[in-house]
Every structure is written in structure tokens, then in C-alpha cells.
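Technical note accompanying the year-one report. For the benefit of new consortium partners, we illustrate the data format agreed upon in the data management plan: each record pairs a sequence with a C-alpha cell string. No post-processing was applied to the example shown here.
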Amino acid sequence: MSNPHLKLTKPVVEKADPAEKDYLIWDTDIKGFGLRVWPSGSKTFIYQYRNAKGQTRKLKLGTYPEISHLAARKAAERARGDVLNKIDPQAEKQAEREDWNSRKSIPSLREAIETYIHTRQLKPKTLTEYEGFAERHINPRLGRFRIDEITEEDIARFVLKLSKTRKTTARRCLELITAVYNSKPIKKLVHENPAADVQKPRLKKRKVYLDPDEIHSLIEQLNIIYEKGDRVRCNAVDVLLLQMLTGARRDEIRLLKYRDVDLNSDKIVLHDHKTSTQVDDDDYEREILLTEPVTEIFKRARARNYKNFGPVADDYIFASTNASGAVSTQYHSKVWRAALDAARAAGGIKKDDVRPHDLRHSYASLGLNRGLTLGEVGELLGHRDERTTQRYAHIYDDVKKAGAAKVLSSILKK
């Protein structure tokens, strides 16, 4: 059987049937990235390359479905980067295996966490959070112990003590420890995960929805701040306004670049977003359709930031002071707090503990109250899993009850 060239998407990988002899399917996007299909039906991702000596090497990336096609693609991209930097990934892998096997001691939790977070494709924000959880909380209590010495009771005590003052942090630390023990290298050394049955601290569920009057009050205060603000303050105001008008997450707007916004087709195309790391779908891009008020905000941002020259594709639309990065989260929070305090002082908002992310929940709530279905709201919010949208089901039920009451009223009147 010939070795075809196809893009290795999930359907292609799943439909690759075994033959009498093993064969390869080569990816059309990454040269050297392939899927070997064995007569037994087993499927192995590989990356083929030539090392600095001109020798052809095949690096095994993993077996499907233990490793997904997306994870294998990322591994192939890393291997290609190594080859371009004159590093032989096959030799590196062999050296690491020999080094690991030569070690008589099992790693400590500190070492296991460090290896875990630096060998995964984590976003910068997640990497920083994990490093902070490890250094400030996990390592001082558990980091020095070998991973096979730590018991479920040890982890439970750690979580319980931390949750007395920081419940959310305790949950995130437990999630990190659980993930480390579930990682493939650690599972070979410790067969049972001591964190698996440790109870997560329960968080108080927040349900804060702003009504149209409250949102209008915030918009009024943001407009006042805009009129008196400098360029960066105006950028922060526009980010908040777009959160209200699109239901997008803060960083989906804050980190937008000019290449992401197409005013001709009236849409934003998000290539790197929260949902893209949660779904197993090749090249998934989220789109946000632009309405006229939203388009006007983008136009004024461009005019404000580029009075004398035009932007380039990689420029942030809502830039910081030096224009080398996006407006900071701290500045965004500062402007939010100023607008919220002013709206409260004016009597427009009486709710406590309102966060910028509640604008997203409020957007969903208003959509449901205007007759949209849960599926339609989920599509607008970029939810790929309809279970995520179920958090708004109680609002949808209230809308349906109100509709049923109107029908009943008309029947009884007759």
C-alpha cells in the first residue's frame, strides 16, 4: 500500500484502517509528521527527520488514542524546532531515558511538578499560576517528599488547612497535584494517585446578573471616564464596553490584534482562546460577529491609537502605554472599579461584589430573556460543550414559565 499524504485530522486518524502490511500517512502541513498504521490496528504518531550528521531518524511521538492528534501535532512541531536548532530529539529522548533509569531515587513532588509544568504546552498565564502555587503553597508543605511517600491523608490535610483561608487556591493546588500524579511518567512509578479521592473545597456559587438599567448606568460612567481619559484609559474603557456588547471574556478582547478583526466581513476571529485548549477539534477558531456599535468602537480605537500612521497586523488594538503590549489587567481592573463605584454612587447599581466577568453572565441572561434558546446563547458565548451553557438553564426555565403563564392567561380569559 502506498503512503498517502493527508492532513492528520481526527477523522483521518480514526478512519485509517489496517492493511496486510504497515503503512504511513504523511501530514501535509508538517513535513516529517506521520501516522504509522500497523496490521494489528495499532496507530503510532512519528516524526521523521535528518540529524546534523545527515542520518534519517524516526521519533515516536505516541500511540493513538493515548495521545490525541492535536497533542501529536504539537509534539511534532517541538521536534521540528529542535531539529532546526541542531538538536537531535531522538538522542535527547534516549539520554533522558538513560538518565531517569540511572537514578536510584524516585523524584520528590517538587521535582515532579517542575518537570510536569515545563514539559507541557501551557499558556504563559497558566504556567505562571502553576509556578506560584508550587512555590508558595505546595512545596513548603509537601515538595521535599518523594512522590511515592505522599499519602492521601497528607494531601487532604494540606488542602484542608489551605482552604480555611484560600478555598479557590486550595482547589487549584489539588488540581495541579492530581494532574502531576496522572501524568504518564509518574503513573509508571506510582500506580495509584493519592490525590484522586481528596475532596475539593466547596466554593460559594456566585450568580450575579446585571439588568439593562444597571448596564446602562455602567455605560454612562464608562463614557464619562472615556471623555476625561488618556489613550490607555480609553483603551481600557473600550475593552469593558466590548465585554458588555459581545459577551466575550476579558482577554479575548484585551489581547486582540488587528489581524484578528475583519471589519469588511464584520467578525472577530479568535485563534487562541480558552475553548481552543478544551476541545479535540483541529484548527478550531471562534468567531464573534460584529454589530454596528461594536464596529464603531473598533474604528475609534484605530483612530485614537494611529492618528499619524496605520497599524500592522501584530499590533495590539488596545495597547498599553508603550504600545509593545496590551493594556494591563491591573489597569483594566482600575477602570472597572472606578466605573462601578461611580455607578453605585449614582444609585444605578446596588448589587455587591460585581466582577467584570459578570458582564458575560449578564449578556447570556439578557439573551435568554429576549427569547434566545440555550443553544443560541451557547453559540454566542463560544461554548463548545452544551453542558457549560446549562448554568443558565434556570433563567431559561423562568422565561418558559412566563410564556406558559401568558398562554394560560389568554385561555382562562376566554
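Partners are asked to follow this layout when depositing records. The two ends are 75 Å apart (CA to CA).
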